[in-house]
Structure formats: structure tokens, C-alpha cells
Design goal:
By secondary structure, the chain is α+β, with helices and mostly antiparallel strands. The chain has 2 domains: about 210 residues, Hypothetical protein, domain 2 (Endonuclease III, domain 1, Orthogonal Bundle), CATH 1.10.340; about 120 residues, Nucleoside Triphosphate Pyrophosphohydrolase. The protein has 15 helices and 7 strands. The strands form 2 sheets. Strands 1, 4, 5, 6 and 7 form a 5-stranded mixed beta sheet that branches. β6 and β7 form a beta hairpin. α1 packs across α11, α8 crosses α11 and α9 crosses α11. The longest helix has 16 residues. The N and C termini lie far apart (about 65 Å).
Length: about 350
């Protein structure tokens, strides 16, 4: 068929040399796919190289301490991916003797592995004829065939999966899947694609109908919640500070942070000062409270906008089991907190 022939030819001439493309090892493919969820290739590649160097096999990852895994993941975001990655590695190493499930349906049973990731592993590692359907694939197919179905609906996912399966050459599904994703990432990009220099510019329905900029169609808009975090950085007479582990379910689970005062809006000095002296650190003698205003951050997550303020509180006493700056950097933090620490805002 003309579509897959043109696409494959373009891919073989244009594809990027990415480290996880030079293998059929399901461990490396699984690792790359989990990392690249919600992450750009340029950002994810250094993490992939670090992980495969530190954990060259699934057994190495399974036997690692969770905090080490989270520390190496620091900055990639969506930390539940890292926790699921670690738990799944333990399941594969200990329960499956290090052998990855060899089929799409079996791969779906792994924790943290959804339809897209299972399809990617099944086709790239085992050459199973199952299509991958991600944002790139939605975009390419919706434009080429002028499909106006709402991609936020589950029924549309089935529609595009069926179409991709029909287009896929069953003797070489891996190359087809790689090609269509690469085409969406490099050529058929979301905004201002170079349609004049596109292999499909004489057959793309959206181009002919001047609908490239309106496809794919997505109706559902994500509701974003605003939250207001005040991090309280205690500094004792030795220059040590205090941190805590986020054990509650939700964002940043099992990462570390400074004591947190969450408010319903941006907090002023008086409110924070009262909370510090009456609710948080009443056991200490407060010398000073200072807002690190230069470090105020708006940190955007997919479903939450975090308005973060940092407050330095100096005390007369010594913190029991206090953490010095050198040791502080060894803990896994949300990247917004680590960046604050790394800029030496604490001035130890």
C-alpha cells in the first residue's frame, strides 16, 4: 500500500539514532517507553542512558533501593512511573525469572503498562502485529484521512487502532510503528508542520481541505487545580535543616520535602509567622523568619498548578538528626525543591 511504503521509506532515510532503537531487548524498550510517557525524547534520553548504565538488567533495577530509583528519576516528573517501574522490575525479576511476557495481552498485566506501552514492547521486541497509538499517531492519521472524531473519547482510540492495524504490514509491524510515531514527532508536528516538504502533500486530506491546524479534534479540557505550598526551611546553629518524606498518596509520593504549610491562597508574612511559631516549631526559639522571595515558583503539573513559596526560619537550638547541605542533595526531591537547594538559596 502506498501509505506504509512511503512512510517506511521516509523513516529509514530520516529516523533519529536513538539508543533504544538499536535493540530488541524488552527491558531496554520497556524502560524507554515508560520514561518517554509525558516526556520529550531530548529530555528522556540522558535519563535512559543513566538508568541503563546504573541498572543494566532488570535484576539490577529490581534489587535497587526505591530511593535510589527516585533520585535518578528526579526531574522527569510523574514519579508514579518510577515507583511502578521499580515494582514491575521486581515482579519480572523475582516472579518471572527475569523473562518479560512475550505477548501484548500478557504485557498488559504488568503494573504501569497500558495499551500503548504493551503494544510498543510487543511489536519492537517480539514483532507482534499490534499497532501503537499515541498522540503522534492520532495526529498523522486524523490529518491524512480527515478524521474528525474526538480523540478524548475511548471509542475514537478503538477507531484509530483499527485503522492503524489495517494500514500496518503484518510482516514488519515494528518498523511501521516506529515510522508513524517518528513522522508525527518530526514532520507532522502539532503546530505549523512543513506541509510543502511532506511525502504526503499530494494525498493528505487535511492539507487539501485546509484543516491541518484543526486536526486532531479534542473536546475535553483538563481541569486544573491551584494549590499554594509554603515550604518552611529550618536552619539551626550548625546550619542543618529538617526534611520529611511525602508518604500520603498523590503527587511526589515517597519523595522528600521541607515541612509544608499548604494554604488556600498565597500566604503573607503574618500568616506564615503565626503558623511557624504556633503550629510547626513551637519547641524552638525563633531568631528570624524570612521569605526567599526570589525563589517563589509557579510549578505546573498536568492537573495542578503549584504556587510555591520558600521561607527560611533560623532557630537558636540544634535540630535533632538535622541534615547538612551535602547530605541534603543525596535525597530524592521534586525537581522544583532540588533546584531551590542547588541554587544555594539556603546559604549555609
Amino acid at each position: 500500500m502506498k501509505f506504509h511504503n512511503l512512510l517506511t521509506d521516509w523513516y529509514l532515510k530520516t529516523k533519529r539514532d536513538l539508543p533504544w532503537r538499536n535493540t530488541t531487548n524488552p527491558y531496554a524498550i520497556w524502560l524507554s517507553e515508560i520514561m518517554l510517557q509525558q516526556t520529550r525524547v531530548a529530555q528522556g534520553t540522558p535519563y535512559f542512558l543513566t538508568f541503563t548504565k546504573e541498572f543494566p538488567t532488570v535484576f539490577d533495577l529490581a534489587n535497587a533501593d526505591e530511593e535510589k530509583v527516585l533520585k535518578l528519576w528526579q526531574g522527569l516528573g510523574y514519579y508514579s512511573r518510577a515507583r511502578n517501574l521499580h515494582k514491575t522490575a521486581q515482579h519480572i525479576a523475582h516472579d518471572l525469572k527475569g523473562v518479560f511476557p512475550p505477548t501484548y495481552n500478557e504485557l498488559l498485566k504488568l503494573k504501569g503498562v497500558g495499551e500503548y506501552t504493551a503494544a510498543a514492547i510487543a511489536s519492537f521486541a517480539y514483532n507482534e502485529a499490534v499497532p501503537v497509538v499515541d498522540g503522534n499517531v492520532f495526529r498523522v492519521l486524523s490529518r491524512y484521512f480527515d478524521i474528525e472524531s474526538d480523540i478524548s473519547l475511548p471509542a475514537t482510540k478503538k477507531e484509530f487502532t483499527s485503522l492503524a492495524h489495517e494500514l500496518m504490514p503484518k510482516d514488519n509491524p515494528a518498523t511501521f510503528n516506529q515510522a508513524i510515531m517518528e513522522f508525527g514527532a518530526l514532520q507532522c508536528v502539532p503546530k505549523n508542520p512543513d506541509c510543502d516538504n511532506c511525502i504526503f502533500n499530494d494525498s493528505c486530506a487535511a492539507l487539501q481541505k485546509k484543516k491541518v491546524n484543526v486536526l486532531p479534534f479534542k473536546s475535553k479540557k483538563l481541569k486544573v487545580t491551584n494549590r499554594f505550598f509554603n515550604y518552611l526551611i529550618l536552619e539551626d546553629i550548625l546550619g542543618n535543616t529538617l526534611i520529611q518524606k511525602r508518604t500520603a498518596k498523590g503527587i511526589w509520593h515517597n519523595l522528600y520535602e521541607f515541612p509544608l504549610l499548604e494554604t488556600s491562597t498565597i500566604a503573607d508574612f503574618e500568616f506564615v509567622s503565626n503558623a511557624v511559631q504556633n503550629d510547626f516549631f513551637e519547641q524552638y526559639t525563633i531568631i528570624s523568619i524570612e521569605e526567599c522571595s526570589d525563589a517563589t515558583v509557579l510549578h505546573k503539573l498536568s492537573h495542578q498548578h503549584l504556587h510555591i513559596q520558600f521561607w527560611k526560619i533560623k532557630i537558636k537550638e540544634q535540630i535533632e538528626n538535622g541534615i547538612n547541605q551535602t547530605n541534603l542533595k543525596t535525597f530524592p526531591f521534586p525537581i522544583v525543591i532540588y533546584n531551590f537547594i542547588d541554587k544555594k538559596e539556603l546559604n549555609y
